[in-house]
Amino acid sequence: MTTTTKPRILTGDTPTGRLHLGHWVGSVERRVALQDEYDCYFLLANMHAFTTRFDKPQDIRQDTLEIVKDWLAAGIDPNRSTIVLQTEIPAIAELTWYFAMLLSFNDVMGNPTLVHELETKGLADKYSFGFPLYTVGQCADILAFRPELVPVGEDQEPHIEMCRKAARKFNQLYCDVSSRTEDADYVKAGGVFPIPKALLGRVKRLPGVGDGKQKMSKSLGNAIFLSDTPKDVQKKINKITTGRQSPTEPGDPTNILFQFVEAFILDEARVAELKDRYARGDNLGDGHVKQELAEAINALLEPMRTRRAEYEKSGGDDAIIDIIKAGVKKANATAEETLHLAKRAMKLDFGRRTLA
Ligand code: TRP
After folding, report:
1. What residue spans define the domains of the chain?
2. Max Cα separation, the chain?
3. 224 neighbors 236 (Cβ within 8 angstroms)
4. Could you tell me the distance, in angstroms and rounded to a whole number, from the CA of residue 284 to the centre of ligand 1?
5. What residue's CA is closest to ligand 1, atom 13?
6. Separation between Cα atoms, residue 143 and residue 254, nearest integer Å
7. Which of 26, 89, 109, 234 could be joined to 153 by an S-S link, Cβ 3.0–4.6 Å?
8. Calpha distance 67→85 (Å, rounded)
9. Positive or negative CA dihedral for 169, 173, 175, 177?
10. Whole-angstrom distance, CA of residue 78 vs CA of residue 324
């Protein structure tokens, strides 16, 4: 039973490796900032990792611990927020089944993010039966916690839309909520599930280092990681190419370099000054801008490095596992409550179980 009355947030990451600056501006920054105002649940989608890497359980385990380290380093506070390990929350797996019946085959297979993944991840004719199911699983991840908001990057919007569809349908079918109800009023009208909203990050798309054509991504090798050293950061920033020849050539203040400047130099007056001088070719070289940019990024990452160091000492992994266990307990209290409400609405109330 949860005692807090703050509105809830749920979001999460699939453990595929370390978090980078694209994750930070796309979602993680928001999560850190919202911890006081909201009752936050941050999910480790380790079951989803098995949809494509079922043959690599050891890597998935390591990546899972690594993401928790990144979260803690970034400022997620396990005393205020709940860390949810997907594979220890049975209500999520159960709700996935029920939601799978409320969405059509075409809802799932036509999900633009899924279609894109099938095309780009080389999965075309060999993906597992379980792979497309992760999208339905994601509806359950979210709705198990009945949150109002889901802070995510743009690529996740189709998943949130599917989740909203499943929630409306459930409420209409099993809770007698009218289909004319406004999204904001579903719970008031007797529904089990709120219709959650996506909350997009401050920067919609951060390019990777290089020519800026691709978005930042670990697999493309163009990412600056939250765990990079100051030297790595400067080296990677130096890889940004704008094609500009000299400090007196009028530059484009919306180019890749300035997309980074806008994202990471927080002093707005300074950003305005840099843009103005760059555009006029007022003796401002790319090299100078890069140095100032790397300093700003390093200032952002420095406190993360300090926090991370705590978990890199011996015994660090044990500390992380303890945090995960504590989160599982809190998360199951909420998710079991949701499952109970959902099963009661579905006339499946044949005795309520309790988890040990
Ligand atoms: N699919 C998300 C990603 O790869 C991770 C995720 C799983 C998630 N379940 C979620 C995000 C629930 C938000 C809410 O980034």
Report:
1. 8-205+315-345, 230-311
2. 76
3. yes
4. 41
5. 11
6. 39
7. 26
8. 11
9. positive
10. 9
Helix (H, G, I), strand (E, B) or coil at 225: strand
Instruction: Supply angle C-alpha 269, 270, 271, rounded to 5.
Output: 90
The encoded tokens of residue 346 equal 């579905």
Helices (H), 212-315: 230-237, 256-264, 268-280, 286-312
b/e map of 8-17 (b: 16 or more CB within 10 Å)?
bbbbbbbbbb
d(CA 138, CA 143): 9
Q: Kindly report the CATH number that applies to the domain delimited by 8-205+315-345.
A: 3.40.50.620
> Could you count the other beta carbons within 10 Å of the beta carbon of residue 306?
10
CA distances in angstroms from 34 to 20, 52, 85, 334, listed in the order given: 20, 31, 20, 19
Does the pTM of the predicted model rise above 0.85?
yes
Ligand 1, atom nearest to 155 Cα: 15
Distance 111 CA to ligand 1 centre (A): 14
Minimum CA distance residue for ligand 1 atom 11: 12
SS3 198: strand
Fold of 230-311: Tyrosyl-Transfer RNA Synthetase (1.10.240)
Residue 237: CB atoms within 10 A of its CB come to 23
* pLDDT per residue rounded down to tens, the chain (356 residues): 445 689 999 999 999 989 999 999 999 999 999 999 999 999 999 999 999 999 999 999 999 999 999 999 999 999 999 999 999 999 999 999 999 999 999 999 999 999 999 988 888 788 999 999 999 999 999 999 999 999 998 889 999 999 999 999 999 999 999 999 999 999 999 999 999 999 999 998 999 999 999 999 988 999 999 999 999 999 999 999 999 999 999 999 999 999 999 999 999 999 999 999 999 999 999 999 999 999 999 999 999 999 999 999 989 899 999 999 999 999 999 999 999 999 999 999 999 999 97
Tell me the three state secondary structure of residue 215: strand
Expressed in angstroms and rounded, the spacing between residue 145 Cα and the centre of ligand 1 is 14
